[in-house]
Amino acid sequence: MPVYAYRGRSARGELVTGTLDAVDQGAVADQLLTTGVTPVDIRLTHAKSPSDETGALAKLLEPRVTLVDTMLFSRQMYTLLKAGVPILRALAGLQESATNTTLRRIISDLRVSLDAGRELSTAMRRHPDVFSEFYISVVRVGETTGQLEESFDRLFSYLEFEREVRERIKTALRYPTIVIVVVSAAIAIVNFFVIPAFAKIFEASKVELPILTRVLIGVSDFFLTAWPFLLAGMVGAVLAFVSYTRTEQGRYKWDRLKLRIPVVGPIIFKSTLSRFARAFSLASRAGVPIVQGLTVVAAVVDNSFLARRVEQMREGVERGESLLRTAVTTGVFTPVVLQMIAVGEETGEIDDLLTEIADMYEREVDYEIKNLAANIEPIITIALGILVLILALGVFLPMWQLGKVMLMKQ
After folding, report:
1. pLDDT of residue 46
2. Rounded to whole angstroms, how far apart are CA atoms 120 and 111?
3. Residue 31's closest CA among 109, 124, 108, 95?
4. What is d(CA 310, CA 332) in angstroms, rounded to the nearest whole number?
5. Is 217 helix (H, G, I), strand (E, B) or coil?
6. What pTM does this model have?
7. 35-86 residue pLDDT tens
8. Whole-angstrom Cα distance, residue 254 to residue 138?
């Protein structure tokens, strides 16, 4: 965690200096303002935070805080706060009962921050890998409105939905992935073992081979002689692809391309829109201002292409345009969704209608996942049929010619 040196003025106007470890300068400013200090200057130092002294190896071996861990943390916080347990005592109880050592350490850090007079949302900013900007924004609104327990309840519902969406996407991609792996393995076996065995027979027979057979033998010889280069090229291509998609432009193009993949693309697209609607509904119901809500929701959709469309909506709202008009200009919403947004703006129940939009997309995703096998089966059948036809014509035609030559010799 970076360490920042700050200078500020207390409520009495006295000069206050010191250092704080935080994610960025904004987090430092939030921490200072919550303690009654007005920041004057905040600069990054090269000092090490006490949490960094635990060692890079120890942090590398720490278990990761999963989505389920965060979801259960939210549910337990809601239950404890609703029962009237003070927040520090609630965190102490969760720290003792946490089975994940990393989560236990993070809860301990939250307790230390609260003891120092910081707000819970400010303390959570120190752990961006666990608590997203959206999560922190909802907690901050709960602190401001005095409904922190309700904020944790809404966050639990949202995280549970998020987990279900991820599981659905994994289920949707599992079958195509298995098919691609099996077909690739079959092609490798044919090129490395089957065709070379037949090539020796054809070579000994001195029979003129059809052009398709010569092409298959040539491809097989190429695989046998150049497989190290092909393997290195594949590894290099994967590394280049990963590096490119980590750039802003590369990730944007890849996220846009994912939505256009046949069969699977519509499922990913509708799942992402469902995530957007659910998050926006939660932010609206929690009392987050619409501009701030669109800002944090843009980071939740986990797709750069759609995130830019959400940011485009935010910019339109900042200019004074209606939410409906900005949604129309994005070009990603269906007429039914646009109509529901229009009704929500007129009635002031945009959060309820956004929840209905999320439910609608979720039902469509469930339906398409259930029919995924039926949609992919014709593609797989055609691909396997073409593969078998090529092998049959390339391997068995020369065998038939060889049989005819042997009969003529008799």
Report:
1. 56
2. 9
3. 124
4. 10
5. helix
6. 0.65
7. 677 787 788 775 544 455 445 555 566 788 888 899 999 999 999 999 988 8
8. 30
